[in-house]
Amino acid sequence: MTGGYLKGRLRREDIITAAIAVYREAGYHGSSLREVAKRAGITHAGLIYYFPSKEALLAAVLERRDAEDADREQLNVAAPGLDMLRHLIGLAEYNVAHPGIVDLYVRLAAEAVSPGHPAHEYFVRHYRVAREEVLASFQALADTGELRPDVDPQVAALTFIALEDGLQAQWLTTPDEVDLVGSLRTYLQSLLTVPLS
Amino acid sequence: MTGGYLKGRLRREDIITAAIAVYREAGYHGSSLREVAKRAGITHAGLIYYFPSKEALLAAVLERRDAEDADREQLNVAAPGLDMLRHLIGLAEYNVAHPGIVDLYVRLAAEAVSPGHPAHEYFVRHYRVAREEVLASFQALADTGELRPDVDPQVAALTFIALEDGLQAQWLTTPDEVDLVGSLRTYLQSLLTVPLS
Fold first, then answer.
1. Do B112 and A161 count as a contact with CB atoms less than 8 A apart?
2. Per the domain annotation, does A130 fall within a domain?
3. B23/chain A closest Cα distance in angstroms
4. Chain A contact for B55 (CB, 8 A cutoff)
5. Of A14-23, B5-14, B84-93, B180-189, where does mean pLDDT reach its minimum?
6. Which residues bind DNA (chains A, B) (predicted)?
């Protein structure tokens, strides 16, 4: 690893940190690359070198969030199966207490459905990784007889991710009418032959 | 009903029709009120009188879509219960064949999570109506023993709507990896004690 490469990595991380602060204060439409550059102590041209668009920068914010979520909720060390599903419920509880990042995720996910969008590749990867992670748990539960025999692990995994995404948008719009964590828990429990908690 | 009122209603409908055509050709970001005004044969100021923003106009497009969906899929005449659920699967099949309107729905739903957004009220209403419609069906199924006894109709209704929304975004992003209709059908079947079809 060269010194220049390391410096670039650090600068990139500083920019993402500044972007998170600006987004928190100004929201999706209020955030601008100019404000992020100012906060990070870098020129606008310098910022563009690392992130050619606001959307590319916001995808990097979500990428860092995924890494932080994995650390905090121990997603990389949890055993596939009930343990992992409980950690995913823990993540949903964290999200409900942090609506700002959920708001960013929901907005960028909708923007990024088109292949040409700067965050498109992030979401293609994110969905795949999320589905695989959950699939491994449902497969482990099927092996031990803890998954209902009529449940297909593939369908259950895809459905869990889609349900979480759909609940988030509906919860942000009508927070008093949507029990995000309770709905996810009830859905997971309905697939199992043993108590989730 | 006065002649002026009727004329206003017709003019409003013409504008929505023009907006649908422009959206179909230019997409979410390419569509402009100016282009819609031109297509509808009305001045820009005249258009603003009816729809103060692009987002308000797009909410009206979704409102007309809801009415058209209800007519085509006979949602207002289907009996609550299995019959209604089958019609909702029919609607999902129609949606898969018409990704353009799904794209508009997904994008505007994400934009409209904030209370200040011109389409916010539309989505609050849309979610409520959709949940009530599905709830009536699950309640009817519970009464006849066709719903699994451990399924709560309220949770099942909320989950169905959220699942459909989440599947739509994931399907638009990775169409080859998401079986939208199959996943919905499997989810519904898992709640029932009788065959869905």
1. no
2. yes
3. 15
4. no
5. B5-14
6. 32-51
Two structure tokens written together for A18: 């500044």
Q: Give the nearest partner residue to A106 out of B113, B161, B167, using CB atoms.
A: B113
Using a pLDDT cut of 70, give the percent of chain B over it: 99
One domain, residues A82 and A2: no
On the question of pLDDT at B1 being above 60, the answer is: no
- Position A197 scores a pLDDT of 85
B130 within a domain of the structure (yes/no): yes
Domain containing residue B45: 1-52
CB pairs under 8 A between A and B: 125
pLDDT band at B30 (very low <50, low <70, confident <90, very high): confident
Domain identity same for A39 and A66:
no
Closest residue, chain A, to B121 (C-alpha): A173
Distance, in angstroms, between B7 CA and closest chain A CA? 34
Asked if B65 and B41 sit in the same domain, the reply is no
**B187 and chain A in contact, CB less than 8 A:** yes
DSSP string, A35-79: HHHHHHT--HHHHHHH-SSHHHHHHHHHHHHHHHHHHHTTTTTSP
Candidates A110, A158, A191; nearest CB to B169: A110
Interface test with B, best of A103, A138, A158, A174 (most B CBs within 10 A): A158
φ/ψ (deg, to 5) at A153: -55, -40
- Residues B84-142 have pLDDT tens digits of 999 999 999 999 999 999 999 999 999 999 999 999 999 999 999 999 999 999 999 99
Between CA B126 and CA B119 the distance in angstroms is 10
